[in-house]
Every structure is written in C-alpha cells, then in structure tokens.
Design brief:
This protein is of the alpha/beta class. It has helices spanning about 45-55, 90-100, 110-120, 135-150, 165-185, 195-200, 235-250, 250-255, and strands at about 1-10, 20-30, 35-40, 60-65, 70, 75-80, 155-160, 185-190, 205, 215-220. About 35% of the residues lie in helices and about 25% in strands. The strands form 2 sheets. A 6-stranded mixed beta sheet has the order 6-7-8-3-9-10, sandwiched between helices. A 4-stranded antiparallel beta sheet has the order 2-1-4-5, covered by helices on one side. A hairpin with a 5-residue loop joins strand 1 and strand 2. The longest helix is centred in the last third of the chain and has 18 residues, at about 165-185. The mean pLDDT is about 90.
Length: about 260
C-alpha cells in the first residue's frame, strides 16, 4: 500500500543553511494496517507524513502508493492535523463535505453519508452547529469524519489528539479505533504518546533524533478490539519498554 524507500529530506533555511530532517528512511505499510510513528520532537515524524501526503517532495529516495510514485496530493489519501482546521463560518455538515465539494466529487448521497458518519462518531444533532459551538474533542471528531468521508485508502494523522485533555484523548483514541475497524484503511499515525501508540497500532515505528532514521519497528501483538484495560498486560509493557529504551535509553526505560 505505502512504500517509503531510502527517503531523505533536507530543508534550506533563508540564510542558505541546510537542515537534514530525514535520512535513508525505508518503511512498507500494508493495506488496512495501522502504523504509529513515535520519536523525540524535531526528529522528522511530521515531515515523513507530509512526504507521503505529497505536500513536500523527497530530497532523495522515493515514496509510492499502490505502486505509483507520489508527486503531489492524491484523492485516495486524507490527512488529519493536530488542529482540526475547520472552516469557522461553515456548520459541521458543510465542513465535513467541503473536501468532496472542492474536488467536485460530491454527489446526491454525500450529505446522507456525512450524516451517517457523524452519527457514528456521536455527533448526531450537531450537523448545524458552528465549530465555535463545539468542544475541542468534538471539533477533532468532525475533522476525522471529514477525512473518512473521502473514503481514503490511506489516512495520515499528525498528532491529532495532541491538543486535547487526557480524558478526551483516551475517548478519541477508542473512537478512532472503532471507526478504523469499520473501514480498515491504511493509517500512519504520528504521536508523542508511547501508550497511545501501543494501544492503537499493529506496529510502532521508532524514529531516531534528527536526522530521523528508523531506529526500530515494534510489532504489537495485543488482541483486537483494544481497550485501556490492556495497559497492564505483559505484551503492552514489553512494547512500551522497548520503545522507551530507544527514545530515553535503557536506564530510564525501566525506571
């Protein structure tokens, strides 16, 4: 589904200086697989998502989806950012349908599908509300519904719950799992939360400090459906310790 092969990315500053964000990154993601990406701030996690989304070009290597090189944004790929990025003057329903209308893909059943998706996300009755009338968690649900309405084969999520409080974040993690389980698109999910990564993902990719490289890929063998009750399991703790050992070092990982 997604192939990232020997990818590197270097940015140029206004003064001409070079900043190497990623170096020789290779990763394959299967259809329907949920892959989380973790690493220290500034290691290039978000840059990697933007490369897959076609928002920025790779400096070296290749990114391909379904065997086709990514040269720009694609209709079969959707992205959810940390901020919901909703249109403040448009109601919930129009926000959810906006990308399809922009791409001239909206049809007679688009609004019905949007309403059904909002109901699945617990937002039935809020279709006519403005973003300012919703909580942060509700706004992010709208953003996720907007992405899912496009029926993407690839969903890219860049710390989508980072701005939420702890309780809302847990609720949204379980909501995301439920929505993904019903549709099973390939997901690349960037997060700073190790427990969140282990709870959600089939595999967790650990990225080294800049320039970002793949330091480890941790297979998560927890049974699905997942819940926070699994945090105390041996498998959950094994995965979390292995990830922490790469990010913080062995001593802090077992402290």
């Amino acid at each position: 589904m997604i192939r990232i092969l020997h990818v590197g990315k270097t940015f140029r500053g206004r003064d001409g200086s070079a900043v190497e964000a990623l170096r020789d990154v290779s990763l394959d993601v299967a259809e329907g697989e949920f892959v989380a990406i973790v690493g220290a701030s500034g290691c290039g996690k978000s840059t990697l998502l933007r490369l897959v989304a076609g928002l920025v070009p790779a400096s070296t290597g290749e990114v391909a989806l379904h065997g086709e090189a990514v040269t720009g944004p694609r209709e079969d790929t959707a992205m959810v950012f940390q901020a919901p990025t909703l249109l403040p003057w448009a109601d919930v329903l129009r926000n959810v349908t906006f990308p399809l209308r922009l791409m001239h893909r909206a049809g007679p059943g688009t609004e019905d599908r949007a309403r059904a998706l909002l109901a699945t996300a617990g937002l039935a009755g809020f279709e006519g509300k403005l973003p300012s009338e919703l909580s942060g968690g509700m706004q992010q649900r709208v953003a996720i519904c907007r992405a899912l309405l496009q029926e993407p084969r690839v969903l890219l999520m860049d710390e989508p719950f980072g701005a939420l409080d702890a309780l809302t974040r847990e609720e949204m993690s379980l909501e995301l799992l439920r929505l993904w389980s019903a549709r099973r698109m390939a997901v690349l999910f960037v997060t700073h939360s190790i427990p969140e990564a282990v709870l959600l993902a089939d595999r967790v990719v650990v990225v080294s400090p800049r320039p970002g490289r793949v330091a480890d890929v941790v297979e998560v063998s927890l049974p699905r459906p997942r819940s926070f009750d699994q945090e105390g399991s041996d498998e959950f703790q094994r995965c979390a310790r292995r990830i922490r050992a790469h990010i913080f070092g062995e001593r802090r990982a077992v402290a």
